[in-house]
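Table 4 source record.
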Amino acid sequence: MSAENKIIQIVPDRNSLIDAALTTWKETAAEAIEEKGYFTVALSGGSTPIPLYQKCATLKKELPWKDTYIFQVDERYVGIDHDDNNYKSIYENMVKPLGIIPAHVVRVPVENNTAENAARGYEDAIKEFFCARNIQFPRFDLMFLGIGGDGHTASLFPGLTSLSERKRWVVSVKNDTVNHERITLTFPVLNQAKHIVFLMSGKDKAYQVVKVLKNTACDLPAALIRLQDGIVTYLVDKEAAWYM
């Protein structure tokens, strides 16, 4: 990834982080809709993006929801009503308050009987969406990613074979260090995005943040986001930028 498509923006606090993310959402959505008539955004779970989803829920008229399609970056293989389910958080904080119709949400089908089948079902749903628009390989307009304390992003963890997956768009993941099996987009899909925004917040992420952003030889999963034709924006609050 060249310096031209890598942006590092350090902001004072989490509120500023969310405001900057929202600005990127608005700008990217407007560009996508002007270009092709619709906007695709893939959302992550975890606690960091929740304030962004809550802020979006207050902007029913300011954002182009009728032309927006929401996808998931990753999911835990738990029931949709489980507190650890990523979509439950997205739904309760944004989808439900805005009244977004089901046809505009493509989620991981955790009701499938195994995590592997949930992964295949989600990949099929993504294929159906993009093939219906004469697109053979998914290219999301915008993705929001985070970084874990071990340097993972999405549900792509250090040392697992899923890091080297090059054919499948979605895989299931088992990792002894976390609760629940996971379902995640793979690097071939992530690295085709037009714009990825990393939300990096909190002092507990500071060590991994500096490794990913300052060490060109870093092999942590979060450092393997290398867009060929797109922009990666790293939004970092002061606590996460502690070592920078």
